[in-house]
Design a protein that fits this description.
Blueprint lengths: L2 H6 L4 H8 L23 E6 L7 H16 L4 E6 L7 H10 L4 E5 H4 L18 H8 L2 H9 L2 H4 L1 E16 L14 E4 L3 H9 L3 E4 L5 H7 L4 E4 L1 H6 L2 H4 L2 E17 H5 L3 H35 L3 E4 L2 H8 L1 H6 L3 H12 L3
Parallel strand pairs: 1-2, 1-3, 5-6, 8-9
Antiparallel strand pairs: 3-8, 4-7, 4-8
Bound molecules: alpha-D-glucopyranuronic acid.
Length: 346
């Protein structure tokens, strides 16, 4: 079954069908925003796929990004954010943005690793010391410029920049996690990437790759015993209801990337592209600010819903996971990126 067919039989079939046939926004025809000085171009609405809820900082920052972009370009470019995987889970939206059926998406580093192993350099444990450090790297074209355009020829995708996912930690259905031994033999959901599979194996657990939107029912039904994420998704996806103990393993700081179909991006006039870049900078800055409050709020709300948050033996996790860096960073290009990122640490 093709990706598109799979989507059409999914629960969001109505909306997806509507959007993919172009009724949900402007079509690509006759837009010519690239501007050769000819006729005025038709306004364009970019459909952006997101797997988070409308209360999540990513939705808020992207929605406002779209509104500001529309104002800055006199309505020539607008963004419609589709939350909750309504345009497909991240693995699908990656394909759909590449083939132009969807215009933009937020995808986790784990997804981009399937297209280029260089992204692994920015996903391994230890690459970022803090969110501030991460943001100074993933939105610095000096460091990531070549990486972000490297998928244009092969996949028609351009990476615009990154949002933080914060530090990720484990939670299991039964009990709390204090040392890697507490995860031994557990079936843990991972993002669909070799790095995440290896990470869970290094802790002696059994990895189950699964789309984000399936984790709640996976936990509930017992298909998986646990998962790992940040506090915000732990709360907004309601995982705390089925796995009430969040254990601060802080095993890595994840990145969400904003991707766009490259052909579409090439249609933007120089001025509109400058406005797009400027508003994107404002968007990731706003997202970073929102993140701290959203994390605190998520903890408070999850606790009110019966969840607890516990510290772990962080050294034991660091020791178990450190070898992944050498294991996964084998190419010169990966090592260069990793070192450039480390060089930006304060
Ligand atoms: C975080 C991240 C998402 C990712 C998710 C996951 O919530 O922001 O982009 O999809 O983790 O674990 O799949």
């Amino acid at each position: 079954m093709s990706t598109t067919t799979k989507l059409l039989v999914g629960s969001a079939a109505g909306l997806v069908a509507l959007v993919l046939t172009g009724c949900g926004g402007a079509t690509a025809e006759g837009n010519g925003n690239g501007g050769d000085g000819g006729e005025a171009a038709a306004p364009k609405t970019l459909r952006l796929a997101l797997n988070q809820t409308e209360e999540h900082p990513s939705y808020i920052a992207l929605d406002e990004f779209g509104q500001r972009l529309s104002e800055a370009t006199d309505g020539r470019w607008t963004i419609d954010v589709y939350p909750n995987e309504t345009l497909g889970a991240q693995a699908e939206s990656l394909q759909l943005v590449g083939d132009g059926s969807v215009d933009m998406a937020i995808v986790s580093g784990a997804q981009l690793e399937t297209l280029s192993q260089d992204f692994v350099a920015l996903s391994v444990p230890t690459v970022f010391d803090s969110i501030e450090h991460q943001m100074s790297v993933v939105n610095d074209t000096e460091v990531v410029g070549d990486l972000y355009t490297s998928l244009e020829d092969s996949n028609s995708l351009t990476v615009i920049g990154g949002f933080t996912q914060g530090a990720r930690s484990f939670y299991i259905k039964d009990g709390t996690v204090e040392t890697p031994e507490d995860l031994a033999g557990k079936k843990l959901r991972v993002q669909e990437s070799e790095l995440f599979i290896a990470l869970v194996e290094a802790l002696g657990a059994s990895p189950t790759p699964m789309a984000f939107g399936e984790v709640y029912t996976g936990l509930q039904s017992g298909v998986i015993d646990g998962a790992e994420n940040n506090e915000v998704s732990y709360f907004t996806q309601k995982h705390f209801e089925v796995a009430p103990s969040f254990s601060y393993t802080n095993h890595l700081i994840g990145t969400d990337y904003l991707i766009i179909n490259s052909d579409l991006l090439a249609e933007m006039s120089e001025d509109d592209r400058a406005a797009f870049d400027e508003e994107w900078t404002a968007a990731w800055e706003q997202h970073t600010e929102l993140w701290t409050d959203a994390t605190e709020q998520a903890i408070e709300d999850a606790e009110a819903g019966g969840a607890s948050f516990n510290e772990v033996d962080e050294d034991a996790f660091t020791e178990a996971l450190e070898p992944l860096v050498d294991e996964f960073l084998t190419e010169d290009s990966q090592i260069e990126l990793y070192e450039a990122a480390r060089g930006a640490a304060k």
